[in-house]
Protein 1
Amino acid sequence: MKASQERVGQGGAGIPAHVAIIMDGNGRWARARGMPRQAGHRAGVKAAREVVEACGRRGVKILTLFTFSSENWKRPKEEVVGLMQLFVEALGKQVRELHKEGIKVRFIGQRSTLNDKLRKQLEQAEELTRNNTRMLLNIALSYGGRWDIVNAAKLAIADAQAGRLVADDLDEESFSRYLSLSGQPDPDLFIRTGGETRISNFLLWNLAYTEMVFQDCLWPDFSDANLDAAIDSFAGRERRFGEVLDAAGAE
Ligand code: IPE
Ligand code: IPE
Ligand code: MG
């Protein structure tokens, strides 16, 4: 049996519990086909739907997808409007399906920047799927890592002013509870498609010790084989978290 078959539905050894993905390259995928960027985003939504399935089958417990960054608002208005419409459409079509599959959906990002319709959809999706336990899907929408940290600081200050927090008690563990992914383990594996080797203001706090995989593949072309390649690379790495694991061998 091939290693990739063994994993199906099992999770466990070698399978990252939390995978975070920057789904990049939609625009270039469309351009290479002489199509408008929106067509690339549409193909990107399909690839996103498929990666949720693929991660579920492999036993990944948490999947965090970067769909729109704080900085993506700076794109031409037409593209931003097209993307927001696509999110509304995709959620409308897919939330019930995700629910049936036992997936809990959560959104992270600056909700006040989203239009009312989309915001309402996010709330409904979260409410519908809140008791699901098979997999947790975090969708980062209007999200920025720096925004997340500043927002956490504001929440901590508010708690301090209300007498619920003493500054001396603030440490990495307690501070992290104010972040968007509060209570969730940090990503084990980070994947970015599209060939750029940067974080682009994704989960700045949470990626501190995440294993990074960068792939040239453009997001709409992302397949099970790409996911397996990333997981294989992850499985072969020694995570040290700053420690010396084999003190004798290090001499
Ligand atoms: C990622 O694809 C999707 C979003 C940022 C919304 P891009 O739109 O960034 O595609 P490229 O990088 O221009 O090819
Ligand atoms: C990161 O991609 C954001 C998403 C994929 C949602 P960008 O295309 O916005 O990143 P840069 O501009 O290349 O850094
Ligand atoms: Mg891009």
Note: Confidence is low (pLDDT under 50) at residues 1-10.
Protein 2
Amino acid sequence: MFSQYSKTLLVKSSKLSSPKLFTIARPLSTSQVLRARSKDATIPNTSIKVFREITALRQWRHKQMLDYRSVGLVPTMGALHEGHLSLIRMAAKENSSVVVSIYVNPTQFGVHEDLDSYPKTWEKDAEMLRNLDRELAADGGNLGKIAAIFAPTTNEMYPSGRPSQEINGKGSFITITPVGEVLEGASRPTFFRGVATVCMKLFNIVTPEKVYFGQKDVQQTVVIKRMVKDFCMDTQVVVGETRREPDGLALSSRNVYLGTRRRSVATVLSKVLRTAETAYVRGKRSRDELLGPANELARLLMMEQQQLKPEERVQFEMDYVSLADPETMQEVDEVDDTKGGILSGAVKMLPVESPQSGEDLGLANGPPVRLIDNIILKPVTK
Ligand code: AMP
């Protein structure tokens, strides 16, 4: 990621004779910043521009408009995986120029959350984007291509200084309530304030015709849609389906924290949600009928782990399992067939006990990992 937390930066400038990898120690040196600021910076061996400054990006954006080129934006925090790539593929089908933003936004992390250890994998991200760029070029079905990466510094994104991450901290914030206060918002009180604030900035900077978000973070999609509607913003929010590992675990940049032992049990949440979905498909509609069997499975899986030896088991805590209205995210007692519903949940995978010598504990030595997932219960038309 290109924030002051950046470790590496891979850029090619037309002023340089060959592509170059700069290893950036924090803080960035002046010459490195200047090179990365060059408006000719690209990901090596591609035409994908790398912008770190709003002014340069705006000049480029203006040119897109003059050339009648539509712009789609895919906001990310980097550490790219297939979920992110699937959104970029969608955007390339529907827009002439796709902008991918890569920015680890500090204000959406709580004071005690994993901002400092959040994975930053710029070189790998650049490689994935280079490969995807080639794939998109070879596939005749696309309207456009990955045109630019927007990887701003925190000084660019927060020109009056970075606001506090404290709940009562002062600053220029966007808050979307009550939808941003429940579920993830209840567990992480500053999260949606940070997300809505950074997305408002990104939308103002890039002025995209369309923005792309993953269903993986379903409450985020509801918050962003509400923000776009209530602030009369001229962009269309498109939601791409959740990409998963073959065993059902939703892809997430945070999965690298798990390590081998916890990874083998991390499907607990998707299994619990699937149980509720099965009941819905079988015609059940009440909260008890849907969440009862789901919570029972969670209890059984937890007991199964507790019966294992400490050096083998994985302890986890279910944070919540929710059945909510798809527009408000408020809990419902009964699913309305005409609206459908959203099943969602969060689980905290606790650090493994009695780690064995040489055991893969995951990035940052296996701190607690909070995983989220959801399933959309589609409306039933009779
Ligand atoms: P992040 O980098 O985690 O902030 O995610 C950037 C975007 O990718 C968000 O819109 C996420 O919802 C989306 N995303 C993350 N994981 C997945 C996934 N497994 N499938 C689809 N989209 C995803």
Note: The longest strand covers residues 316-324.
